[in-house]
Amino acid sequence: MRKVVKDLAIQRSYLLFNYAVDRVKKGDLNLARRYIRLGLKLLRKANASKPYVYRRYVCKNCYIPLIPGLTARVRIKSNKKQIITTTTCLMCGWVSRKPCEKRKGR
Fold this sequence. Notes:
Layout: H1 2-26, H2 29-45, H3 52-56, E1 72-78, E2 82-89, E3 95-101
Antiparallel strand pairs: 1-2, 2-3
Helix pairs in contact: 1-2
């Protein structure tokens, strides 16, 4: 029974995330924020882990979906060992840095 509830919560949270992205594209940021918060609340109630889209594509400060070019700026910085992807929220200025290893050359 719990597994069904978790699965339902994850499905509904994906729907709410997609609705939030549509709202941002139409310019209604407050409703998009509300959808994201509802999705996170659903996941907490069902004791389900956050899906990838909530971990990577939602601002953890202002709860706006991060859409590159619209609500987020994405920069890629490289050094000898790794590549760092920097995502900046254009609404509040929150910065996320995600490192990943470089692929070995040919």
